[in-house]
Amino acid sequence: MKSRKALAILFLLAGSCTTRNENSALVISSVIPPIASAVGTGAATALGCKFDPGSPEYTPDLPYNPAENRGSIAAVVVNNLSPTTSLNPLLRGDSTSFLPHQAVVNYEYLPAAAGAAPGTNIIPTTGIVVPGGGGKGTVGIDIFNGLAVSVPNGTYIRVTFHLEGKLVDGSLVHTAEREYLFRYCTTAGCGLGGPWAALVGTTLESCL
Asked: pTM surpassing 0.85?
């Protein structure tokens, strides 16, 4: 009887970790745009792009102009799983490291009169392995990958997404769900006015 009660308690604790696609173990703590810079000199100058997990979240809506950017952002993931190295320090590595594989993204146009938004989009991701024990890492996502978005200028696009992947031990896992806003714009230069853009030679180019 005691063992049955113990199993029931463990089941309830496990269930309490995930509610409405939320996950307290793998959390998207912020959404950040890339940081652009001009790399090199003279004719060899090129656009350099990076994500800094220490960057503050960009709180206004990000501009999206299909002629100028791809909606390239990064989710900063915090892995709160307890490392397993203490179970056997000599023979066991940390099996709780998170390996992101893809983003599952849903879209909503605001106002709804802008039209029907695309369906769920599965997008391959890039990023480093995120270690357990409070480890942090950036996972890059081209949030509009494969989509042809055409809505009135000024339309807001709400994206709701989570990341899916594996732990080193092979377990299939996903992060908490996260929402973020983009603003569709068509005016030339509207997507080039932030830290995600840099002057390369005489041309302003975007990492976003």
From this structure: no
Distances from the Cα of 99 to the Cα of 42, 61, 138, 141, 174, angstroms: 39, 28, 11, 14, 10
Within 8 A by CB and 6+ apart from 133, the residues are: 79, 81, 82, 83, 94, 96
- Residue 58: both structure tokens together: 């960009």
Q: 195: cis peptide before it, omega within 30°?
A: no
Residue pLDDT, tens place only, 12-38: 333 333 334 666 789 999 999 999 999
Residue closest to 102 by CA, chosen among 130, 73, 139 = 139
* Identity of residue 98: F
Q: How far apart are CA 74 and CA 207, in angstroms?
A: 12
pLDDT tens column, 121-154: 999 997 789 999 899 999 999 999 999 999 999 9
DSSP 116: P
SS3 155: coil
Whether the CB-CB separation of 167 and 37 falls below 8 Å is answered with: no
